[in-house]
Amino acid sequence: MTQPLAAPTDTIDLAAEYREAGVADVLDRLDAELVGLAPVKRRVREIAALLLVDRVRERLGLASTPPSLHMCFTGNPGTGKTTLALRMAEILQRLGYVRKGHVVAVTRDDLVGQFIGHTAPKTKDVLKRAMGGVLFVDEAYYLFRPENEKDYGQEAIEILLQVMENQRDDLVVILAGYADRMDRFFESNPGMKSRIAHHVEFPDYSNAELAQIAERMLADWNYRFDAAGRAAFDDYLHHRRAKPHFANARSVRNALDRMRLRQALRLFDGATPVAADDLQILTAADVRASRHFHPTPPTLVGQAPPEADIDAYDPDRIPERSDY
């Protein structure tokens, strides 16, 4: 039933609506969780404002087309896309645009089957779990493989398109990945592009922001750098981000995990009593033991690479080991 049109003198306190919906709490947590990313946070505030105003317009009986909520997050790995998807789901739930506010994160393997008749059940099962919340499809461009005529990714795309259109009041889909690859994906799938209303671009972190992220992570784990260790970590970032497979905050976490291992071995090999302070401090030695400070010597033809370059024989670990 259509609500009566509001009188011209009717007013609503948008600030009060904003507070009561709890959106401010979500945005404050987003600020605390993600360092920097000012353009991303501004875009989220814009989307939240649009949804809040749309809800108020509906309450006042003002004609309005329900907003399209499907989104695309683009950027390099480790820039906070998954974290933002979680917070966006909370905002949507608090404003009444989804029922549950949960996030189901998937990749191609969760949607596409290996044989005829396998893809549809897999995709529909994922969609069933995501209903009432957000479906986050990471590296969505891998769904489309035109070079393989026997690939079943297109079937998954067609099912997604149908649900994104027919059940958009009960499901929000967020596609994520590298910007250039997502552009090519949309060029090949214009139906998908037309259903995406909001595009959010995630910039890479600066070295100063990555250092701040590292200090936050260490504080959460009850660790810290000493002065020399902090300076060494700045050097590490300079060396690391110039190398392949750099993944922003993800690379920082991998590197810190490795530094903690080196610290533990250093203390163990010291064979002397340690104080609580010793257990918390990462030194320059823990940082500079990284292979990024030690050029790999060339190997002879047919000779296996040293341990630091074993990635060539263990390709699945290349991105992770590149941070060591």
UniProtKB/TrEMBL annotation:
<feature type="region of interest" description="Disordered">
    <location>
        <begin position="293"/>
        <end position="324"/>
    </location>
</feature>
<dbReference type="GO" id="GO:0005524">
    <property type="term" value="F:ATP binding"/>
</dbReference>
<keyword id="KW-0067">ATP-binding</keyword>
<keyword id="KW-0547">Nucleotide-binding</keyword>
<dbReference type="InterPro" id="IPR027417">
    <property type="entry name" value="P-loop_NTPase"/>
</dbReference>
<protein>
    <submittedName>
        <fullName>CbbX protein</fullName>
    </submittedName>
</protein>
<dbReference type="Pfam" id="PF00004">
    <property type="entry name" value="AAA"/>
</dbReference>
<feature type="compositionally biased region" description="Basic and acidic residues">
    <location>
        <begin position="314"/>
        <end position="324"/>
    </location>
</feature>
<dbReference type="InterPro" id="IPR000470">
    <property type="entry name" value="CbxX/CfqX_mono"/>
</dbReference>
<dbReference type="InterPro" id="IPR003959">
    <property type="entry name" value="ATPase_AAA_core"/>
</dbReference>
<comment type="similarity">
    <text>Belongs to the CbxX/CfxQ family.</text>
</comment>
<dbReference type="GO" id="GO:0016887">
    <property type="term" value="F:ATP hydrolysis activity"/>
</dbReference>
<dbReference type="InterPro" id="IPR003593">
    <property type="entry name" value="AAA+_ATPase"/>
</dbReference>
<feature type="domain" description="AAA+ ATPase">
    <location>
        <begin position="67"/>
        <end position="206"/>
    </location>
</feature>
<dbReference type="InterPro" id="IPR041627">
    <property type="entry name" value="AAA_lid_6"/>
</dbReference>
<dbReference type="Pfam" id="PF17866">
    <property type="entry name" value="AAA_lid_6"/>
</dbReference>
<comment type="function">
    <text>Seems to be necessary for the expression of RuBisCO.</text>
</comment>
<dbReference type="InterPro" id="IPR000641">
    <property type="entry name" value="CbxX/CfxQ"/>
</dbReference>
<dbReference type="InterPro" id="IPR050773">
    <property type="entry name" value="CbxX/CfxQ_RuBisCO_ESX"/>
</dbReference>
